[in-house]
Amino acid sequence: MTTDHGPAPFTTARLDALPLRVAYADEMAAVLADPALHTFTGGAPESAAELRARYERQTSGSPDPDELWWNWVLRIRDEDRLAGYVQATVRGAGAEVAWVVGAEWQGHGYAKEAAVGLVAHLWDAGVLRTVVAHIHPGHAASAAVAAAAGLMPTGEWEDGEERWRLGPLPGNSVSSGVGGA
Fold this sequence. Notes:
Number of helices: 4
Distance between the termini: 19 Å
Structural class: alpha+beta
Shape: globular
Order of helices and strands: EEEEHHEEEHEHEE
Oligomer: single chain
Largest sheet: 8 strands, mixed
């Protein structure tokens, strides 16, 4: 699940999930340039310089020693192009996850494939009891991705988004998600 220097890469049928590096900022600025990507999350596309600064913060790690920030860019293997990212904030035995696929690559199943791969990558290590995602109620595509990854709506809300959860594992008494985002 991790290396000595951060999250381990993982693969799916069509994607390579590569640990985030500052060097990806220029290409990712183009991938994330469509303002429509911010419809449900707010904000606006970031420039390459802004992404470099954010990636520097993210790759430096959380200031909270009990929290891990794991971020991967998604490379479409056959095209050798970046197409989005997945991330996990890990705290204790839980992780909060998110995914974004650039507008050009939406509608091809990449978000579903990436989210399923991410959850499997995190879950297979056997140390997590919960995986949580926050889904805007109007974002049907993201809800479908969460469901494909095995998460279910909880009826719990935070900042206008519903918490979707996988876990706890059978026989486990943990019933809440994790902190951070």
